[in-house]
Amino acid sequence: MQGTFYAAVAIGALIAVGPEAGHPAVALRPPSDSGVGAKLLGSWVGTRFDASAAAGHKFTMSWRRDTSNALTGVVTMNGSSYPVRVVWSSDTGFVTESAPHQSTSLKEKVVTRTVSHFKGDSLFGTFEARPMSYQGKTEQGHFSAHKG
């Protein structure tokens, strides 16, 4: 399933960009688990700050390995939870993408993408919640978390 996704993304990139003379197209690679799994597994407690608000919102993340050994997580905030998955990783950070979920602040379905970096036993990063509808608003901000 994951291989099919990456193949579709690579083909889409080739069609959209196309190879130019002297610049061959590069396909996206599936996430490597460059040690990120050992650092990420378990529960995390954090605070996220929306670009439009000064007050932070508490959240928790729980990470485990699924039956295919992929990293999967659940984010809980404001009483609701949604699944997330690692879509890219290195030894110092990773990118996640959520399943569509209801945003309590935007009051519509969104997909949230984060870029996270490890610093010691903490995580720091940015997020963007994009609406599932064309006319919806996007929410951006930053967060920090520690193992809890």
Brief overview:
With 148 residues, this protein is mainly β. The protein folds into 2 domains: 30 residues, no CATH class; 115 residues, Quinohemoprotein amine dehydrogenase alpha subunit, domain 2 (Lipocalin, Beta Barrel), CATH 2.40.128.120.
Name its key features.
148 residues; mainly beta; Lipocalin; 2 helices; 9 strands; globular
Write up this protein.
- With 148 residues, the chain is mostly beta strands.
- The chain folds into two domains: 1-30, no CATH class; 33-147, Quinohemoprotein amine dehydrogenase alpha subunit, domain 2 (Lipocalin).
- It is built from two helices and nine strands.
- The protein has an eight-stranded antiparallel beta barrel.
- It is globular, with a radius of gyration of 17 Å.
- 18% of the residues are buried.
- Residues 4-30 have low confidence and may be disordered.
- Main beta-sheet strand count, sense and barrel state: 8 strands, antiparallel, barrel
Within CATH, the superfamily of the largest domain carries the name Quinohemoprotein amine dehydrogenase alpha subunit, domain 2
In sequence order, what are the helices and strands, one letter per element? Answer: HHEEEEEEEEE
Distance N to C terminus: 32 Å
Approximate shape: globular
In CATH, the topology of the largest domain is named: Lipocalin
Instruction: Report the helical percentage.
Output: 10-25%
- Number of extended strands: 9
The stretches of 5 or more residues where confidence is low (pLDDT under 50) are 4-30
Spatial order of the strands forming the largest sheet: 1-2-3-4-5-7-8-9
Question: Count of helices?
Answer: 2
Q: Judging by the overall fold, what is the CATH architecture of the largest domain?
A: Beta Barrel
CATH class value of the largest domain: Mainly Beta
Strand content: over 45%
What is the average per-residue confidence, as pLDDT, rounded to a whole number? 81
Q: Which class of secondary structure composition applies to the elements?
A: mainly beta
> Radius of gyration, rounded?
17 Å
How many structural domains are formed by the residues? Answer: 2
